């Protein structure tokens, strides 16, 4: 396997980079581990940045994976505020912005993603925020004062979590989404409508199906003008219109990229001894039988762990049903699987919905239904057919549906 | 240490859990594979009740982020949890279930 002189270089010290370093040691990798990050913070997770940090319940520092001393204890060299500028695959080395050349035995890219800018948004206007980093979150949290008017541009998860936190802090909130429904990429419209009702019930104004024309202000933001001519006065604007995977470093070195850095189920890029994990990848999912690019906590953590194990010499495919959660207005929303426009939607009570294709469960979305979502994941993994009627019947345990189907499948 | 009866425990099916508060302490009582287990009911990662989670293969999985704890020991078995949850002794006598809690 690996000799003590081997050196793994990890580029990107976010959640994925941090978890990968941890998993390398967990797998018994004895060599050097170098973790390069552009930010000044040790690896942290982002979910809290749009929730508890904005609510003022905890500081952004609570999002750290481990305290700094932990890395020293594990023999993981943290190289913070250090940008890797280039990869030289032939000499198996990376080059930092300072011109330092660092050789690797294997390289793991956890370069993540960056916010997608809203085209036409003015630069340097006070009160206009994006939310991605530790500092973004602290800056925004400081501006969430009761009575102020917030316009959120983008009805995706980030925008809605910001809207939720701001409503709970007493701001007047309007969410603008150019698509006709919230969470357009993530959920079938019928289920997303439930999320819209939740926000409306808590007093947020929703403007769906209308794009933003321009943001007005002079030094500080004053209003958001919509394409239909409406002008929304604003003290604060938060833009959440998606993220872009940071593929350029690997692309420049010759790696293949197609809506994310292309990796196989063992997290290998098309460059020899170069692996990738987390937001940046476009990977083959053996359960879904197709390629996906995921922007989730689960993927950042578990694909990174899978990559680390493969680097350490195990051969284990990364194969999980995509799972995601969001906390909004006191409701924990979880989804497992992937949406499809052709899905049949089946409700099981008021708080759990399934998406079916040819009687197979492909998606489940729950509102304060964590335990049931986990059972639903099993149904998706098993790729069995389940009659919609049984699924809708709350008297039938989801676990029992799995057993029934397994039994009938094994009967000749 | 003292034993506390758990009312309604017998209604639990296999691999099911109930949440309760005993002596101001949140407790998850679990029936799994013919055995009873009692754990502190709050996940060590972020606030969530384990009794609302999923039970499988001798572990209970947190409903919030899917961290797993071993039922018998409370040991962390899957990220993001790294700290164990306390576990408490359980006994079943004459159709009644009791949990032993520290004073």
Q: How would you describe the overall organization of this protein?
A:
- The complex is a heterodimer of chains A (412) and B (103).
- Chain A has 412 residues and is α/β, with parallel strands linked by helices.
- Chain A has three domains: 7-114 and 244-311, 3-Layer(bba) Sandwich (FAD/NAD(P)-binding domain); 128-241, FAD/NAD(P)-binding domain; 340-410, FAD/NAD-linked reductase, C-terminal dimerisation domain (Enolase-like, domain 1).
- Chain A is built from ten helices and 26 strands.
- In chain A, strands 3-2-1-7-19 form a five-stranded parallel beta sheet. Chain A has a five-stranded parallel beta sheet with strand order 9-16-10-11-12, with helices on one face. A five-stranded antiparallel beta sheet of chain A has the order 22-23-26-25-24, sandwiched between helices.
- In chain A, strand 20 and strand 21 (290-292) form a beta hairpin.
- Chain A starts with 6 loop residues before the first strand and ends with a helix.
- With 103 residues, chain B is mainly β.
- Chain B has one domain (17-91): Rieske Iron-sulfur Protein (3-layer Sandwich).
- Chain B contains no helices and eleven strands.
- A four-stranded antiparallel beta sheet of chain B has the order 2-3-4-9, with no helix packed on it. In chain B, strands 5-6-7-8 form a four-stranded antiparallel beta sheet, with no helix packed on it. Chain B has a three-stranded antiparallel beta sheet with strand order 1-11-10, with no helix packed on it.
- In chain B, strand 5 and strand 6 (59-61) form a beta hairpin.
- In chain B, 39% of the residues are buried.
- The model of chain B has no long low-confidence stretch (mean pLDDT 92).
- The interface between A and B is medium-sized, with 16 and 13 residues.
Question: How do the helices and strands line up, and which of them pair or pack?
Answer:
The complex is a heterodimer of chains A (412) and B (103).
Chain A: E1 7-11, H1 15-26, E2 32-36, H2 68-73, E3 76-79, E4 84-88, E5 93-96, E6 101-103, E7 106-109, E8 113-115, E9 128-130, H3 134-143, E10 149-153, H4 157-168, E11 172-177, H5 189-201, E12 205-208, E13 212-218, E14 220-226, E15 231-233, E16 236-239, E17 243-245, H6 248-252, E18 261-263, E19 274-276, E20 281-285, E21 290-292, H7 297-311, E22 323-328, E23 331-337, E24 344-347, E25 352-357, E26 360-367, H8 370-382, H9 388-392, H10 398-410
Chain B: E1 2-5, E2 16-22, E3 25-32, E4 35-40, E5 54-56, E6 59-61, E7 68-70, E8 76-78, E9 87-88, E10 90-93, E11 96-101
